Amino acid sequence: MKLFRADTANSGVTEVVPRLAEVEADVQGLVEAHMETLLGVRFLASEYGTGPVHGGRIDSLGLDENGSPVIVEYKRGTDAGVINQGLFYLAWLMDHRREFEHMVRDRLGGTAASQVLWSSPRLICIAGDFSRYDVHAVREHRRSIDMVRYRLFGSDLVGLETVASVSGGVQVARRARRQPVAQAAADVQGAAMVEELAIAVDEALLGLGDGVNRVQRKQYRAYQRLRNFACVCSPQRSKLLVYLKVDPADVGLVPGFTRDVRGLGHHGTGDLEVQLRTSRDVERAQDLFRASFAAA
Questions:
Q1: CB 198, CB 205: distance < 8 Å
Q2: What's the pLDDT at 189?
Q3: How far apart are the first and last CA of the chain?
Q4: Structure confidence by residue, pLDDT tens digits, 216-268
Q5: Over the stretch 51-64, which tens digit does the pLDDT of each residue have?
Q6: Which fold has domain 3-166?
Q7: Which of the residues in the chain have pLDDT under 70?
Q8: In sequence order, what are the beta bridge partners of 153?
Q9: CB 228 within 8 A of CB 270
Q10: Could you write out the three-class secondary structure of the chain?
Q11: Cα-flanking dihedrals φ and ψ of residue 14, to 5°?
């Protein structure tokens, strides 16, 4: 990536040369101070000790927008050990779920603690760079891992670039809910239509670019690139609701299609609600999908 500062007075441009942090702690301090804005993760703890048996310290602990536990590990430059170190801590976290939930309850409240999503814990590795061996190793693991390259530009700009993003997690078996025969027969046609919409939306959102991951919650499915950019709620009888990270003030709202939900309770994240009833609605929503993806 190259970054240039426009000199409007002289009709020229000046390159802003990228650099690494002086020390690893500078990167950690910057991210922890603005973790929710940069990563979509609520900060919980820094340098968290794993006890005398493991004898380690987790750089950062957090909880993402979907309730997934997050470990963030930092390296100033390139360090092949950051992935294995993070996976070591991730294994520790899965064995200490109650301890983590107590921490969430103390810092974020009981509601957040009751909604921790243990089926998809995440590891985010932020470093000056990664080798191709790191990328290969990440893709071999069945865990949700994001490799993020950082660069500092000048004295007031920071860039984050996703090098690789792999979605993993523990599959949780669910019991199928029984439905009365008459109810099922009445809903079958509408359900089939909405299911087709859900498939079309899934393809559209995954096709926006590399590194898009899905996270399944009970009430919605989140699509994220580090941060959520779209949340698709469980299908209703006649429509599909999608919530996007688009400012409703920047959109010409159309009754029955788009709605400003700022301040209104709903599942998932995003201030713009898009209501999809037909395949034509999915086509109409493509520009909104792209705008939300670009802002993530």
A1: no
A2: 59
A3: 18
A4: 998 999 999 889 999 999 887 789 999 999 999 999 999 999 999 999 989 99
A5: 887 779 999 999 99
A6: Trna Endonuclease; Chain: A, domain 1 (3.40.1350)
A7: 169-190
A8: 18, 157
A9: yes
A10: CCEEEEECCCCEEEEECEECCCCHHHHHHHHHHCHHHHHCEEEEEEEEECHHHHCCEEEEEEEECCCCEEEEEEECCCCCHHHHHHHHHHHHHHCCHHHHHHHHHHHHCHHHHHCCCCCCCEEEEEECCCCHHHHHHHHHCCCEEEEEEEEEECCCEEEEEEEEEECCCCCCCCCCCCCCHHHHHHHHHHHHHHHHHHHHHHHHHHCCCCCCEEEECCCEEEEEECEEEEEEECCCCCCEEEEECCCHHHCCCCCCCEEECCCCCCCCCCCEEEEECCHHHHHHCHHHHHHHHHHC
A11: -125, 130
Residue with tokens 């019991």, as numbered in its chain: 175
Nearest Cα residue to 211 out of 151, 171, 152, 160: 160
**Structure tokens of 255?**
């009754």
Two tokens, residue 30: 């910057």
Match 């559209």 to its residue by tokens. Answer: 204
The closest alpha carbon to 44, from 122, 117, 104, belongs to 104
User: The pTM is what?
Assistant: 0.82
**244: which residues sit within 8 A by CB, 6+ positions away?**
229, 230, 270, 271, 272, 274, 288, 289, 291, 292
**pLDDT at res. 236:** 79
